[in-house]
Specification:
Length: 276
């Protein structure tokens, strides 16, 4: 436990001491939410029928729809890129030093995942500063519900990042692989666009994408689809279904939890076999 805490503490302190990283973490969410979201809202509104749209569809707010996806994107990016420190530590020789210490490799791996998950949680919560500008009501109970979900999602994604990082030798290689992985997962998660009318092969990719269930959980917490009209809920793609079965919030939690356990076990095994 002391070893895991030491690794966790190092990664968290590095995040809070890096002011450029702290401030820069707002750049991409701001670009997507304010510039991309505001720019696309008119086009999406026209697709919905504009002023002539049926009653419930007039309430479709693209920026509001995107906000849970922006939180998911932030948590996802931060969590998966947190594993970059493993590759950098290998390049600079720090990893060799901690591997020859009395700490077990399993403790180091889990400490890394917990550190990345905590940093991703903080950055996800920081996105709530945009709430006053987009007209969404976020209450304390919603925040309390978001925190464990964010951490669980971040834990799963950090484990995937560690699994990838332990197989690569250079920072450039890691970033290249992550960039190839990150955009398809993001665009096929429903974070930026409703998942309606997709071809069968793409719909299959959506259903096997871990980020799909993560983003949908954020939507259910923030947008409260049970309070929306059925037509609006359908237009916003809030009825995620697999084989005709609409997935509940509890089922999505179970899916992400199973993925968390699976990937942290695989990442730990791979880390134990890796070389400094």
């Amino acid at each position: 436990m002391e070893a895991m805490f030491a690794i966790w503490q190092r990664d968290v302190l590095k995040f809070f001491r890096d002011r450029a990283r702290l401030i820069g973490s707002f750049a991409m969410p701001f670009m997507f939410l304010i510039l991309f979201g505001s720019g696309m809202s008119g086009a999406i509104g026209s697709m919905m029928g504009g002023e002539q749209a049926a009653g419930p569809l007039r309430d479709f707010d693209f920026v509001e729809f995107m906000f849970p996806g922006i939180i998911g994107m932030t948590v996802f990016n931060t969590a998966i890129f947190s594993a970059l420190s493993v590759v950098q530590d290998r390049e600079f020789g720090y990893l060799r030093e901690i591997l020859v210490s009395p700490m077990s490799r399993t403790s180091i791996a889990i400490g890394k995942v917990l550190g990345g998950s905590t940093v991703a949680l903080f950055q996800g919560l920081m996105m709530l500063v945009f709430v006053p500008f987009i007209g969404i009501t976020i209450t304390v109970p919603i925040i309390l519900q978001l925190i464990p979900v964010m951490f669980l999602v971040a834990f799963a994604i950090s484990s995937i990042g560690l699994l990838i990082a332990t197989s690569l030798k250079t920072s450039q290689g890691f970033q290249m692989v992550i960039q190839v992985l990150i955009f398809p997962m993001l665009f096929l998660s429903g974070a930026l666009f409703p998942l309606n009318g997709m071809p069968a092969w793409m719909n299959f990719l959506v259903k096997i994408n871990p980020l799909t269930y993560s983003v949908d959980m954020f939507k259910k917490i923030i947008l409260r689809p049970e309070d929306l009209a059925p037509a609006l809920r359908e237009a916003m793609g809030l009825n995620l279904a697999v084989f005709g079965h609409v997935i509940s919030f509890a089922e999505e939690m179970i899916v992400v939890l199973i993925l968390s356990i699976l990937f942290v076990v695989l990442a730990t095994i791979r880390f134990n076999r890796s070389e400094a």
